[in-house]
Design brief:
about 50% helix, mainly alpha, 3-stranded antiparallel beta sheet, binds zinc ion, single chain, 2 domains, about 130 residues
Amino acid sequence: MNRSEFEAKLNEVYGGTVKPLNSYINERATLCFKCEQCGLKFFGKPSHIVGKEHQRHECGMPYGDHYGERLTKVSVTHNRKKNKSAVIKPEEFNRLIWEDYSYQQIAQELQVNPNIIKDYFKDEGLI
Ligand SMILES: [Zn+2]
């Protein structure tokens, strides 16, 4: 998928409401996107954003329901065990991925079980 194919696909899937904020490199390189419809900015791989249904952007849910659900579960588990005010912020989580933190570093930053982050990394093909 080259840049113009990607942009055509993006417009087809989102009707022009989702725009990339960085230059497209390839379908596996994470970009920052903005959705004009719900106003969210979110990170995603081009192959996901225009990929399978559950990997796409859903308005009001920056990461789609697949990862969104998982992050909610992580937060709930974490809340119950430790600090009630500690919740994984998806923006924070994605910023760490964006900045190339390892899963161990992310787990440390967010004070969660590294295995949870590791699973996510495996799913994403990051390790
Ligand atoms: Zn949206």
